[in-house]
Amino acid sequence: MNKSNRMSPTLFSCLVGILFLLVFTDCSNNEKMCVVNNVSLNEISPYYDGQWQGITVASDGACYFGSSAHNLIHGGGFLKFNPKTGSVEIIAEDLTNLVGDDMAKFTPQGKIHSPIIEIDGELFLATHLAAYWNEVLDKYAGSYFLSYNIHTKEWDNYGIVKERFSTYSAIEVDKKRGKAYTMTVPFAPEDLAEGNHMFEIDLKTKEKRDLGRLGSGKASFYFYLDDIGRVWTPTWLGAGSLYCYDPAVDSIMEYKNAFPEPKLMNGENIAVDPFFKEYSWTWARSIDDGEKCLFTMGDFGGGDERLWLFDPHEDINSKEAFTPICYIGNTFLSVALAGNRLYFIQQGDNELSRKYNSEGNRDLPPDKNGFHVNDLHLKSVSLDPDKGYKIIDHGKLIDEKGRTAAYIGSLAADESGNVYMSGSWLIKDGDQPSLQFIYVAPDGKRYGPLEHPGQENSGADNQSEKSDDQFIELKRGEFFSWVNVSKDFQ
Q1: Are the beta carbons of 59 and 118 closer than 8 angstroms?
Q2: How many separate domains does the chain show?
Q3: Which tens digits make up the pLDDT trace of 131-162?
Q4: Parent domain of 13
């Protein structure tokens, strides 16, 4: 065939994309689609089965992110996406091997559930456990605090913060004082009475110091380091308190019932019970060189549907430190700040999303149109008051092959409108599925990753017929996704 008669690959791809959009727009009653590019992470490891937090856009313009695993033979990974080449690079295929744990003695390092914080080209992060079954929780070595240099491509291992305890999941780094802060959380039944503690790590000597207990909560997803070196955090599933570690006096102060009463999008007080009633931020980000902090609470943090500004220099007991910015609806971990815009993952119908756990339903089968029933959309809001805090719905998440998103727990963005995410998607024929580990208890009963006696198998409706003694193939896979939505701002 004469080359002049051939259709160029670029033109062919454009035509396929146009046809795809026409077909799927019609199937969804003219609903707007957010068509992303996808890379299968299960082609790297079939054991990756989820992701929460653990993502950032670094100063080199690349996106660094984790992918999680829940089993007894393989850990989570750490990867890099290069937007110039559109390729994913493996930095650590298994975090367990990276830190040198012996899997004959210990359960794997299953994920990076912490934020990733960059200081002068150094990415700081912490590992988290992989196996949640009671019988093996005492076999976790403990969470490691690590850093990765994006220039030299070298790791620095600060060691286990507290043996058998995990980082779930907040960390912070104080460049001025040369200190890092982590959260240690017990999981083994015999450790639970010790509770959560905040630890300080000296970045030069790697010495670790226990700063004290943080209430009765289960976790803390984000710390906030203010401009005078204080570290603030609530505790998830706690009693609604806000804690502050002040290095000037070397002590932790508790502000009880600190957070304002939650409200829904329509401005009314909470009329439906959220998943968890205890008030807590579930996403937080320092702004203005630490002078203030943006945060969201969401259904898992008391049900509030606003974006908030916290000023630690104002009075906390009177609530003057808290200023609502705008209503954004129901959110959880998948929130990202880029410049003057906040991005978040939300169901198409915010009202229906209340009391609906997308993560818990990610294994449900698709609807009659082939879309995942979670109906996940990418949305954003400008933080410019002159633009009226208008929310933009960039559309239902779908990729160029018609896959739809089942759960997104990891989100990052840059000021050019590039949005990156790592999460679970329904797969097509020929895709490598996620392999879900099935734990066989001493009594012979089989349990999924977060299941214990008395719980149902949440993945039963989305399992294929293929299985072996320990792994089953799911009808979903893990993907890294990216899209540029800057055209929606014009």
Answers
A1: yes
A2: 1
A3: 999 999 999 999 999 999 999 999 999 999 99
A4: 3-489
